[in-house]
Structures are given as C-alpha cells and as structure tokens.
C-alpha cells in the first residue's frame, strides 16, 4: 500500500511556519541602537564641545548637537542592515545558484525618499536661518574694529581706533560684552582665521576683498586663534592667544601697546 502524497493533500497537511521577519528584526535593532547612541552622545557632548564664549558659538554648539542627533540614526540604518546581512545571510563557499530576486516595494521606496527629502529640507532651512543670523549682525558706533593680517606663519592684529598693534605681543585682547568686527586679509597664501570658542571662522584671502566677522564675546577667559587652512611647513605653529577681559583691563592693555584710549 503506497503512502499518501502529503504535499498534494492540502486539506490535511499542517501549514508551513512563516520564516523570520528580517525587516522587523533589523528595524528593532536599529531603533534600540539609535536610542542608546543618541543618549550616550547627549551625555558626553557637554565634555566634548568647547565652552561657548559668544552667542554665535553657542548657536554653533547647538547646531553640532542637533546635526549629530540626526546623523546617528541615518548612519546606523546603513550599518545595521549591512551587519545583519553579513551575519544572517552568509554562506560557506561560492554560491551555486542565484539569490531570490528582489521584489519592488513602492512603500519602502517612497518612504525612504520622503524621509531623506525631509531631512535635506530641514538642514537647508536650518542653515539659511543660521546664515541670516550670522550675516545680519551689524556694526554699531561702539563696535571694536580689529584688523587681522595673516602671513607665513604668524598673525598681526591692529586696533585702528586706538592706533595700537599687538604684533609684538602676539595676542588678541578683546573687551567682554562689546561687539567686535574682524577685518581679515593675508599677505601671501590662503589662511583660515578661526577662534572656535567665539564662533569665528573666515578665510584670509591674498589679493581679495577683506573678509569680515562680527561677534560679541560674553565670557571672560583665555582662548585660542589658529589657522585652519593648510598654509605651509609651519602651519601647525600658527596659533596665538585670545584674551577676553573687562573694559578697564582692555584700556590698560591698549595703553601698554602704545595706543591711546
């Protein structure tokens, strides 16, 4: 007596158990890792980001914080899918047959396109607002003008309102809570004038229109100006001190540099 054909007897055969739902697994792993990494970043960011000594740099730090929070899930989305595929779908030796053909899933394609488009639009709007805030800062009658001249491999700082220069002192002295406008140029090659704690970053262009940056220091302290464009052999030595001091201390310093108050 022959055995019944179980495959053909659909009425009595038990249903085949469903395979693992890989997409759901990956999304769960991705979501959990994203929450963990974002929480770690928010906890350590206060120790990594420099102390903000101006309103502009405070905005820079917040922007860096937000963009990192947005970048974490996007990058993990790629790495989790890649890692999961390498572990779960690995095979020994060379494959002997073609893989299962991919089936189009319009919902995934539209969703991915929509999410990335919204992210790009958000970053564009964020950048335009930040650019407007930076460029809308206008000079006032109380603004301190500082002429910054770069050359291989040193900075020269002039204070035309006081007929003073800090070329010998190799330091920028700034009064706290007073607007400062930097006029930046170069004598030789391209340099980058950057005071990270104040949110200043402009190019020093040789033979071009002088670039400007307006900020208001809000914290008394010592900071650093450095060149952030590779400008030759001693580029790494092209940094000087920046001192934000009280108004009285600034006036005393100006007098010590041969200027007048």
Features:
261 residues; alpha+beta; Immunoglobulin-like; five-stranded mixed beta sheet; 39% helix; disordered N terminus
Task: Explain the overall architecture.
Mean pLDDT is 81; it is low at 1-18. This protein has helices spanning 22-48, 55-88, 106-135, 247-256; strands at residues 144-151, 154-159, 164-165, 171-175, 180-186, 191-195, 200-204, 211-215, 221-227, 239-245. A hairpin with a 4-residue loop joins strand 2 and strand 3 (164-165). Helices cover 39% and strands 22% of the residues. It has two domains: 22-89 and 116-135; 144-256, Sandwich (Immunoglobulin-like), CATH 2.60.40. The longest helix has 34 residues, at 55-88. It has 261 residues and is of the alpha+beta class. The strands form two sheets. Strands 3-2-1-5-8 form a five-stranded mixed beta sheet, with no helix packed on it. The protein starts with 21 loop residues before the first helix and ends in a 5-residue tail after the last helix. It is elongated. The protein has four helices and ten strands.
């Amino acid at each position: 007596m022959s055995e019944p054909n179980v495959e053909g007897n659909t009425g009595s055969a038990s249903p085949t158990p469903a395979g693992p739902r890989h997409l759901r697994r990956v999304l769960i792993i991705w979501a959990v890792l994203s929450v963990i990494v974002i929480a770690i970043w928010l906890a350590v960011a206060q120790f990594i980001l420099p102390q903000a000594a101006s309103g502009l740099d405070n905005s820079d730090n917040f922007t860096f914080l937000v963009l990192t929070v947005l970048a974490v899930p996007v990058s993990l989305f790629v790495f989790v899918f890649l890692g999961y595929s390498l572990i779960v779908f690995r095979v020994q030796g060379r494959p002997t047959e073609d893989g299962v053909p991919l089936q189009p899933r319009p919902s995934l394609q539209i969703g991915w396109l929509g999410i990335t488009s919204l992210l790009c639009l958000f970053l564009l709007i964020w950048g335009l607002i930040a650019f407007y805030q930076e460029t809308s800062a206008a000079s006032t009658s109380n603004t301190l003008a500082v002429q910054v001249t770069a050359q291989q491999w040193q900075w020269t700082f002039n204070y035309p309102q006081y007929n003073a220069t800090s070329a010998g002192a190799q330091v920028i002295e700034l009064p706290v809570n007073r607007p400062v406008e930097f006029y930046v140029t170069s004598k030789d090659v391209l340099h980058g004038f950057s005071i990270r704690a104040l949110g200043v970053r402009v190019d020093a262009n040789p033979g071009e229109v002088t670039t400007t940056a307006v900020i208001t220091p809000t914290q008394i302290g010592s900071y650093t100006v450095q060149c952030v464009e590779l400008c030759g052999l001693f580029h790494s030595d092209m940094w000087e001190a920046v001192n934000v001091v009280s108004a009285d201390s600034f006036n005393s310093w100006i007098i010590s540099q041969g200027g007048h108050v």
